[in-house]
Amino acid sequence: QVQLVESGGGLVQAGGSLRLSCAASGRIFSIDAMGWYRQAPGKQRELVAGITSGDSTNYADSVKGRFTISRDNAKNTMYLQMNSLKPEDTAVYYCNARVRAGLGFNEVWGQGTLLTVSS
After folding, report:
1. Is 77 exposed, middle or buried (0-12, 13-18, 19+ CB in 10 A)?
2. In which band, very low, low, confident or very high, does the pLDDT at 15 lie, cut at 50, 70 and 90?
């Protein structure tokens, strides 16, 4: 099994920066790709940024140029550096891992961490 624990959320003013962390434990070798999702009140969960095992990245249009996803394999940790934060970035941010399971994949989620951006 893979376990994911997010940290780093909090309250920040618009224009500020924050870094989220996602620590993975368990069967780390089975992780294929990872990503950050977010869910704002009353909205569906959406992909913010993803990173593959080969370190290819992709971003939602709304965060391109402001957010950077990265991973430190030595620490089994993924990060999301968020700059130029806007009130509309307010959401619960979830860490996700796509984990190999037999011939297919499972999705593993962290518990989420709340980011609030004040105007």
Report:
1. middle
2. very high
